[in-house]
Design goal:
single chain, about 425 residues, alpha/beta, Rossmann fold, ten-stranded mixed beta sheet, about 25% strand
């Protein structure tokens, strides 16, 4: 595998530190956007219990963000923002109960400015050690990345995570099957909250530990004791009369390698080449990479869901919230949809703020906070032998991981009303 040494090229164009920018009709000045008057919100009568920690907003999320940007308890205090915005798909979405959820009918330029306005406010709301995750499909991924490079800084780009969203597709006659979407991960600065994610070993991955140590029976793999790059100190010199391979250096000082060898942690080949033993029982798993294969959208009839369109897997949001925030931190999702981000934050003892402009989304979240999720199969009606419609077995709504939420306050944008069927509030 080729290795390289970073090197700045000679500049032919003077940029003066200016970032690459997208130019499109309707692009407004950032100063004017951030000067947008804050939205006006009132407390809804459905507020539960204390309502001191968490907030749920019903209203246009730009109004919500302008409102929060005036709040000293929120501005610069958000540790993690996750959003799953529209994708400019030219589609109208309905729930599994065929209720109107939202419209995603933006044209390209209109969509870019829609996203840019919200990203500017999200940047302002983030703490200096905060991070943001933006969930997209391939259509606008690269456009939004340029916007985020401009707003958050290209140096603060951390990952473009690829998520397998579905099983293989059959419509591959003229293209490859589309089974993935993407999450852009940025920090606000070089110093940010990060809790390293470790994926537990599977039997397939554990096969990498193919050697068994005589006497102890411990499984291990063999890894090199050198690394790329030339060093002129102790790690670049002799160890046991050997030099590191050309262009490389020892990973440890000769003294440390001697100590490892004395503990039996060095494997010597027949040719006298050293390798370090890495034991399976000392390794909790594999650090998570930027391709996520285990968070496929709901397809099994026994999976608990809300029925809201584009709902993302609960485990996906648990990973993100756990990786980029700590207990007591503030998590924000201004495209809250079915409320999965809010539930994950609540389960992990984070404070949260959620917002959505769809009455169906708010109804879904309030119902979820009170009753939990419903088995996917429960949304399917079947006819009995007598011809009477009935739900699949387990008619009672299942509560996933006790995700009933009682400690929040609900705000409604001026001019809007909450109207829900009896029992949903």
């Amino acid at each position: 595998m080729a290795t390289g040494v970073p090197r700045r090229p000679k500049r032919k164009i003077v940029t003066n530190g200016q970032p690459v920018q997208l130019s499109y009709p309707g692009r407004r000045d950032a100063v004017n956007i951030l000067a947008t008057a804050p939205g006006i919100f009132e407390i809804a009568p459905i507020t539960t219990k204390s309502g001191r920690a968490n907030r749920l907003y019903f209203g246009d999320n730009l109004s919500v963000l302008t409102h929060l940007n005036q709040d000293p308890a929120v501005r610069g205090k958000v540790r993690l923002a996750y959003i799953d915005p529209p994708y400019a798909t030219q589609t109208v979405f309905h729930s599994r109960e065929l209720k109107h959820a939202y419209e995603d009918i933006y044209e390209q330029c209109e969509y870019l400015e829609f996203m840019r306005e919200r990203l500017l406010f999200l940047h302002s709301l983030l703490a200096d050690n905060g991070t943001i995750y933006v969930h997209l499909d391939a259509k606008m991924l690269f456009h939004v990345k340029i916007l985020m490079d401009e707003i958050f800084g290209a140096d603060n780009f951390r990952n473009c995570i690829t998520r397998r969203k579905s099983n293989p597709k059959n419509f591959t006659r003229k293209q490859f099957g589309s089974v993935s979407d993407y999450i852009l991960f940025y920090s606000k600065s070089a110093s940010y909250v990060w809790n390293r994610v470790i994926e537990p070993w599977t039997e397939h991955r554990a096969r990498e530990y193919q050697y068994v140590e005589p006497g102890t029976g411990r499984r291990f793999m063999k890894v090199p004791v050198h690394a790329p790059g030339i060093r002129h100190g102790a790690t670049g010199g002799l160890w046991r009369g050997m030099k590191p391979p050309p262009g490389k250096h020892w990973q440890y000082t000769p003294e440390a390698l001697d100590e490892m060898d004395a503990r039996g942690e060095i494997f010597w080949s027949k040719n006298g080449n050293p390798r370090r033993k890495v034991y399976l029982d000392t390794n909790p798993g594999v650090p998570a990479q930027d391709i996520w294969m285990d968070f496929v959208d709901a397809q099994n009839q026994n999976i608990s869901i809300t029925g809201y369109p584009t709902e993302k897997p609960y485990e996906l949001l648990m990973r993100i919230v756990e990786a980029s925030s700590n207990p007591g931190d503030l998590v924000l999702d201004c495209f809250a949809g079915s409320g999965t981000t809010l539930v994950a934050a609540d389960m992990l003892k984070r404070r949260w703020i959620g917002a959505d402009n769809s009455p169906e989304a708010i109804r879904t979240m309030l119902h979820r906070f009170q009753h939990g999720t419903q088995r996917m199969g429960d949304f399917v009606k079947k006819a009995s032998p007598q011809g009477v419609l009935f739900e699949e077995e387990h008619q009672a709504r299942s509560i996933l991981l006790h995700q009933v939420i009682e400690d929040f306050i609900c705000f409604v944008e001026a001019g809007k009303e909450l109207q829900f069927p009896q029992g949903d509030g």
